[in-house]
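Consortium newsletter contribution from the modelling node. Members have asked for a concrete example of what our holo predictions look like. Here is one, prepared for the pseudouridine-5'-monophosphate complex that several groups have been discussing at recent meetings.
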Amino acid sequence: MTLFTLSPEVATAIDAGKPIVALESTIITHGMPWPQNVEMARKVEDVIRQGGAVPATIAVLEGELCIGLTDDQLMQLAQAKNVAKLSRADLAVCMATGGNGATTVAATMIAAHLAGIAVFATGGIGGVHKGAEDSFDISADLGELAQTPVTVVAAGAKAILDLPKTLEVLETGGVPVIVVGQDELPAFWSRQSGLAAPLRLDTAAEIAAAHLKRAALGIPGGQLIANPIPAAHEIPRDQMLPVIEQATSEAEAKGIAGKEVTPFLLARIFEITEGRSLAANIELVLNNARLAAEIACEMVKQG
Ligand code: PSU
Ligand code: MN
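And here is the predicted structure:
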Protein backbone atom coordinates (compact mmCIF):
# COMPACT_ATOMS: atom_id res chain seq x y z
CA MET A 1 0.00 0.00 0.00
CA THR A 2 1.50 3.26 -1.01
CA LEU A 3 0.68 5.82 1.61
CA PHE A 4 1.48 9.01 -0.26
CA THR A 5 2.15 10.49 -3.68
CA LEU A 6 5.16 12.67 -4.37
CA SER A 7 5.06 15.49 -6.92
CA PRO A 8 7.72 15.14 -9.63
CA GLU A 9 9.73 18.03 -8.11
CA VAL A 10 9.71 16.49 -4.62
CA ALA A 11 10.42 12.96 -5.90
CA THR A 12 13.51 14.24 -7.72
CA ALA A 13 14.65 16.16 -4.64
CA ILE A 14 14.31 13.10 -2.39
CA ASP A 15 16.29 10.93 -4.84
CA ALA A 16 19.01 13.57 -5.04
CA GLY A 17 19.16 14.09 -1.26
CA LYS A 18 18.34 17.77 -1.68
CA PRO A 19 17.05 19.95 1.18
CA ILE A 20 13.24 19.99 1.33
CA VAL A 21 10.82 22.19 3.28
CA ALA A 22 7.26 21.00 3.98
CA LEU A 23 4.36 23.46 3.82
CA GLU A 24 0.84 23.10 5.19
CA SER A 25 -2.41 23.73 3.32
CA THR A 26 -4.92 24.74 6.03
CA ILE A 27 -3.36 28.18 5.94
CA ILE A 28 -4.41 28.28 2.25
CA THR A 29 -7.97 26.96 2.63
CA HIS A 30 -8.95 28.16 6.10
CA GLY A 31 -6.39 30.82 7.01
CA MET A 32 -6.51 33.31 4.14
CA PRO A 33 -9.09 34.50 1.59
CA TRP A 34 -8.93 33.89 -2.17
CA PRO A 35 -6.95 35.07 -4.15
CA GLN A 36 -4.33 36.18 -1.62
CA ASN A 37 -4.14 32.58 -0.41
CA VAL A 38 -2.82 31.18 -3.69
CA GLU A 39 -0.54 34.18 -4.25
CA MET A 40 0.94 33.55 -0.81
CA ALA A 41 1.29 29.81 -1.47
CA ARG A 42 3.19 30.41 -4.70
CA LYS A 43 5.44 33.10 -3.22
CA VAL A 44 6.31 30.87 -0.28
CA GLU A 45 7.32 28.07 -2.63
CA ASP A 46 9.49 30.50 -4.62
CA VAL A 47 11.21 31.84 -1.52
CA ILE A 48 12.14 28.27 -0.57
CA ARG A 49 13.52 27.58 -4.05
CA GLN A 50 15.52 30.82 -3.92
CA GLY A 51 16.92 29.58 -0.60
CA GLY A 52 18.29 26.47 -2.30
CA ALA A 53 15.63 24.02 -1.05
CA VAL A 54 12.59 22.35 -2.59
CA PRO A 55 9.06 23.15 -1.31
CA ALA A 56 6.60 20.35 -0.56
CA THR A 57 3.07 21.65 0.03
CA ILE A 58 0.96 18.90 1.57
CA ALA A 59 -2.78 18.16 1.17
CA VAL A 60 -5.20 15.25 0.67
CA LEU A 61 -6.78 15.25 -2.81
CA GLU A 62 -9.44 12.63 -3.55
CA GLY A 63 -8.12 10.51 -0.73
CA GLU A 64 -4.50 10.73 -1.84
CA LEU A 65 -1.94 12.19 0.54
CA CYS A 66 -0.02 14.49 -1.80
CA ILE A 67 3.46 15.61 -0.80
CA GLY A 68 4.23 18.42 -3.18
CA LEU A 69 1.45 19.93 -5.29
CA THR A 70 1.58 20.98 -8.92
CA ASP A 71 0.51 24.55 -9.69
CA ASP A 72 -2.85 23.24 -10.99
CA GLN A 73 -3.47 21.31 -7.77
CA LEU A 74 -2.55 24.38 -5.71
CA MET A 75 -4.98 26.55 -7.70
CA GLN A 76 -7.80 24.03 -7.31
CA LEU A 77 -7.27 23.65 -3.60
CA ALA A 78 -7.14 27.42 -3.04
CA GLN A 79 -10.51 27.91 -4.76
CA ALA A 80 -12.27 24.78 -3.56
CA LYS A 81 -15.19 25.03 -1.14
CA ASN A 82 -15.90 22.45 1.55
CA VAL A 83 -12.32 21.29 1.95
CA ALA A 84 -11.98 19.53 5.30
CA LYS A 85 -9.52 20.82 7.89
CA LEU A 86 -7.39 17.80 8.72
CA SER A 87 -5.59 17.37 11.97
CA ARG A 88 -4.14 14.12 13.40
CA ALA A 89 -7.67 12.89 14.19
CA ASP A 90 -9.03 13.40 10.67
CA LEU A 91 -6.23 12.40 8.30
CA ALA A 92 -6.91 8.66 7.96
CA VAL A 93 -10.71 9.07 7.68
CA CYS A 94 -10.32 11.59 4.86
CA MET A 95 -7.91 9.32 2.99
CA ALA A 96 -10.05 6.20 3.53
CA THR A 97 -13.15 7.91 2.14
CA GLY A 98 -11.54 9.60 -0.85
CA GLY A 99 -12.09 13.10 0.47
CA ASN A 100 -10.33 16.41 -0.03
CA GLY A 101 -8.61 17.96 2.93
CA ALA A 102 -6.11 20.60 3.92
CA THR A 103 -3.53 19.63 6.51
CA THR A 104 -2.98 21.59 9.71
CA VAL A 105 0.40 21.84 11.39
CA ALA A 106 -0.22 18.50 13.15
CA ALA A 107 -1.22 16.56 10.02
CA THR A 108 1.50 18.22 7.92
CA MET A 109 4.13 17.11 10.46
CA ILE A 110 2.86 13.52 10.23
CA ALA A 111 3.00 13.56 6.42
CA ALA A 112 6.39 15.29 6.28
CA HIS A 113 7.91 12.76 8.65
CA LEU A 114 6.49 9.86 6.60
CA ALA A 115 8.31 11.25 3.56
CA GLY A 116 11.54 11.88 5.49
CA ILE A 117 11.18 15.67 5.51
CA ALA A 118 12.49 17.23 8.72
CA VAL A 119 11.78 20.95 8.27
CA PHE A 120 8.42 22.68 7.90
CA ALA A 121 7.47 26.35 7.55
CA THR A 122 4.13 27.87 8.51
CA GLY A 123 2.64 31.08 9.92
CA GLY A 124 1.76 30.28 13.49
CA ILE A 125 0.97 27.02 15.22
CA GLY A 126 -2.28 26.27 17.01
CA GLY A 127 -2.20 26.18 20.81
CA VAL A 128 -4.21 26.66 23.98
CA HIS A 129 -7.21 28.90 23.31
CA LYS A 130 -8.28 31.62 25.72
CA GLY A 131 -10.87 30.14 28.06
CA ALA A 132 -9.47 26.64 27.55
CA GLU A 133 -10.06 25.98 31.26
CA ASP A 134 -13.76 25.76 30.28
CA SER A 135 -13.67 24.78 26.60
CA PHE A 136 -10.69 22.37 26.76
CA ASP A 137 -9.75 23.75 23.31
CA ILE A 138 -6.09 22.86 22.96
CA SER A 139 -4.74 22.35 19.44
CA ALA A 140 -3.44 18.94 18.45
CA ASP A 141 -0.44 20.84 17.06
CA LEU A 142 1.07 20.87 20.56
CA GLY A 143 0.86 17.11 21.04
CA GLU A 144 2.27 16.58 17.57
CA LEU A 145 5.32 18.70 18.33
CA ALA A 146 5.88 16.53 21.38
CA GLN A 147 5.97 13.30 19.38
CA THR A 148 6.92 13.86 15.73
CA PRO A 149 10.52 14.81 14.87
CA VAL A 150 9.97 17.80 12.60
CA THR A 151 11.40 21.30 13.12
CA VAL A 152 8.51 23.74 12.65
CA VAL A 153 9.36 27.34 11.80
CA ALA A 154 6.56 29.70 12.87
CA ALA A 155 6.22 33.30 14.06
CA GLY A 156 5.31 31.95 17.49
CA ALA A 157 1.87 30.62 18.31
CA LYS A 158 -1.00 32.67 16.88
CA ALA A 159 -1.62 35.67 19.15
CA ILE A 160 -5.34 34.84 19.38
CA LEU A 161 -4.28 32.11 21.83
CA ASP A 162 -3.49 32.08 25.51
CA LEU A 163 0.28 32.31 25.00
CA PRO A 164 1.42 31.63 28.61
CA LYS A 165 -0.70 28.46 28.75
CA THR A 166 0.51 27.44 25.28
CA LEU A 167 4.12 27.71 26.51
CA GLU A 168 3.29 25.65 29.59
CA VAL A 169 1.76 22.82 27.52
CA LEU A 170 4.76 22.84 25.18
CA GLU A 171 7.12 22.64 28.13
CA THR A 172 5.17 19.74 29.62
CA GLY A 173 5.39 17.97 26.27
CA GLY A 174 9.15 18.46 26.16
CA VAL A 175 9.04 20.72 23.11
CA PRO A 176 11.95 23.16 22.77
CA VAL A 177 10.58 26.62 21.95
CA ILE A 178 13.52 28.36 20.32
CA VAL A 179 13.27 32.08 19.59
CA VAL A 180 15.46 33.48 16.83
CA GLY A 181 17.37 36.71 17.34
CA GLN A 182 15.68 38.12 20.44
CA ASP A 183 14.99 37.29 24.08
CA GLU A 184 11.21 37.71 23.92
CA LEU A 185 8.71 35.29 22.42
CA PRO A 186 7.16 36.82 19.28
CA ALA A 187 3.37 36.92 18.97
CA PHE A 188 2.62 36.25 15.30
CA TRP A 189 1.63 39.72 13.93
CA SER A 190 3.76 41.41 16.62
CA ARG A 191 7.40 41.03 17.61
CA GLN A 192 6.59 41.35 21.30
CA SER A 193 4.47 39.14 23.56
CA GLY A 194 5.58 40.20 27.04
CA LEU A 195 6.88 36.65 27.56
CA ALA A 196 10.50 35.57 27.82
CA ALA A 197 11.96 33.27 25.18
CA PRO A 198 12.30 29.77 26.70
CA LEU A 199 15.36 29.17 24.49
CA ARG A 200 17.23 31.27 21.95
CA LEU A 201 19.37 30.39 18.91
CA ASP A 202 20.42 32.90 16.28
CA THR A 203 21.63 30.79 13.37
CA ALA A 204 20.20 28.14 11.07
CA ALA A 205 23.32 26.04 11.68
CA GLU A 206 22.66 25.90 15.44
CA ILE A 207 18.97 25.09 14.91
CA ALA A 208 19.86 22.23 12.55
CA ALA A 209 22.50 20.96 14.99
CA ALA A 210 19.97 20.99 17.84
CA HIS A 211 17.47 18.98 15.74
CA LEU A 212 20.09 16.38 14.84
CA LYS A 213 21.38 16.16 18.43
CA ARG A 214 17.86 15.61 19.78
CA ALA A 215 17.37 12.72 17.35
CA ALA A 216 20.77 11.27 18.26
CA LEU A 217 19.78 11.37 21.93
CA GLY A 218 16.65 9.38 21.10
CA ILE A 219 14.31 12.11 22.35
CA PRO A 220 11.08 11.96 20.36
CA GLY A 221 9.32 15.04 19.03
CA GLY A 222 10.23 18.17 17.14
CA GLN A 223 11.26 21.74 17.77
CA LEU A 224 9.24 24.93 17.56
CA ILE A 225 11.27 27.74 16.05
CA ALA A 226 9.69 31.11 16.86
CA ASN A 227 10.89 33.55 14.22
CA PRO A 228 9.78 37.15 14.83
CA ILE A 229 7.98 38.96 12.00
CA PRO A 230 10.34 41.55 10.41
CA ALA A 231 9.95 44.95 12.12
CA ALA A 232 8.93 46.66 8.88
CA HIS A 233 5.83 44.45 8.63
CA GLU A 234 4.70 43.98 12.22
CA ILE A 235 1.53 45.31 13.80
CA PRO A 236 2.68 46.31 17.29
CA ARG A 237 1.24 44.43 20.24
CA ASP A 238 -0.63 47.40 21.73
CA GLN A 239 -2.54 47.75 18.44
CA MET A 240 -3.32 44.04 18.16
CA LEU A 241 -4.50 43.42 21.72
CA PRO A 242 -7.87 45.28 21.45
CA VAL A 243 -8.50 43.76 18.01
CA ILE A 244 -7.92 40.23 19.32
CA GLU A 245 -10.10 41.02 22.32
CA GLN A 246 -12.98 42.19 20.10
CA ALA A 247 -12.78 39.20 17.72
CA THR A 248 -12.58 36.78 20.66
CA SER A 249 -15.68 38.16 22.37
CA GLU A 250 -17.58 38.08 19.07
CA ALA A 251 -16.63 34.42 18.61
CA GLU A 252 -17.85 33.69 22.11
CA ALA A 253 -21.15 35.56 21.59
CA LYS A 254 -21.76 33.64 18.36
CA GLY A 255 -20.96 30.30 20.01
CA ILE A 256 -18.12 29.51 17.58
CA ALA A 257 -16.39 26.33 18.76
CA GLY A 258 -13.99 23.56 17.78
CA LYS A 259 -12.28 23.67 14.40
CA GLU A 260 -14.08 26.87 13.42
CA VAL A 261 -12.52 29.02 16.13
CA THR A 262 -9.17 29.74 14.48
CA PRO A 263 -10.57 30.41 10.94
CA PHE A 264 -13.31 32.64 12.41
CA LEU A 265 -10.86 34.72 14.44
CA LEU A 266 -8.39 35.13 11.55
CA ALA A 267 -11.17 36.22 9.17
CA ARG A 268 -12.69 38.62 11.70
CA ILE A 269 -9.30 40.16 12.54
CA PHE A 270 -8.71 40.62 8.80
CA GLU A 271 -11.94 42.67 8.62
CA ILE A 272 -11.30 44.70 11.76
CA THR A 273 -7.76 45.61 10.67
CA GLU A 274 -8.96 46.30 7.09
CA GLY A 275 -6.57 43.76 5.66
CA ARG A 276 -3.46 44.74 7.61
CA SER A 277 -3.43 41.47 9.53
CA LEU A 278 -3.38 39.51 6.27
CA ALA A 279 -0.52 41.57 4.84
CA ALA A 280 1.46 40.92 8.03
CA ASN A 281 0.52 37.22 8.00
CA ILE A 282 1.83 36.83 4.44
CA GLU A 283 5.11 38.60 5.29
CA LEU A 284 5.72 36.48 8.37
CA VAL A 285 5.13 33.27 6.41
CA LEU A 286 7.64 34.37 3.75
CA ASN A 287 10.14 35.20 6.49
CA ASN A 288 9.63 31.75 8.03
CA ALA A 289 10.06 30.06 4.65
CA ARG A 290 13.39 31.84 4.18
CA LEU A 291 14.70 30.59 7.53
CA ALA A 292 13.28 27.08 7.00
CA ALA A 293 15.14 26.77 3.69
CA GLU A 294 18.38 27.75 5.44
CA ILE A 295 17.78 25.18 8.20
CA ALA A 296 16.98 22.46 5.64
CA CYS A 297 20.23 23.23 3.78
CA GLU A 298 22.18 23.06 7.05
CA MET A 299 20.59 19.73 7.97
CA VAL A 300 21.74 18.20 4.69
CA LYS A 301 25.23 19.62 5.24
CA GLN A 302 25.49 18.43 8.86
CA GLY A 303 23.53 15.17 8.54
N1 PSU B 1 -0.76 29.64 10.43
C1 PSU B 1 -1.37 30.69 9.81
N2 PSU B 1 -2.70 30.54 9.51
C2 PSU B 1 -3.40 29.37 9.78
C3 PSU B 1 -2.76 28.28 10.44
C4 PSU B 1 -1.42 28.49 10.73
O1 PSU B 1 -0.74 31.73 9.54
O2 PSU B 1 -4.60 29.29 9.47
C5 PSU B 1 -3.52 26.99 10.76
C6 PSU B 1 -2.56 25.83 10.95
O3 PSU B 1 -2.94 24.82 10.04
C7 PSU B 1 -2.75 25.36 12.37
C8 PSU B 1 -4.19 25.66 12.57
O4 PSU B 1 -2.42 24.02 12.55
O5 PSU B 1 -4.31 26.98 11.98
C9 PSU B 1 -4.58 25.59 14.03
O6 PSU B 1 -5.92 25.24 14.13
P1 PSU B 1 -6.54 24.79 15.54
O7 PSU B 1 -6.36 25.99 16.42
O8 PSU B 1 -8.01 24.51 15.24
O9 PSU B 1 -5.80 23.59 15.99
MN1 MN C 1 -9.06 23.66 18.54
